[in-house]
Amino acid sequence: MGYVAVKGGKEAIENSNRALDLKSLDSDCCSLSLDQIKSQLHFLVDKVMSEGSLYDPDLAALAIKQSAGDVFEAAFMVRAYRATLPRIASSVAESTKEMRVVRRISSAFKEIPGGQILGPSADYSLRLLDFSLCWQTAEERKQLLKHFLSEAGLKEDVPETFPKVIDLLRSEGLIVSEGALGGREQAMDDVTRESIQFPASRSAALQTMARGESGGMLVLAYSNMRGYGSAHPTIGELRVGYVPVKVKNPFTSEITVVGEVPVTEAEIISGISNAEGEPKFEVGYGLCFGHNETKAISMAMLDVAMRAEKPKYPSEDQEFVLTHIDGIEAMGFANHFKLPHYVTFQSELDRLRKSKSNSKKNEL
Question: Do both 194 and 264 map to the same domain?
Answer without folding.
Answer: yes
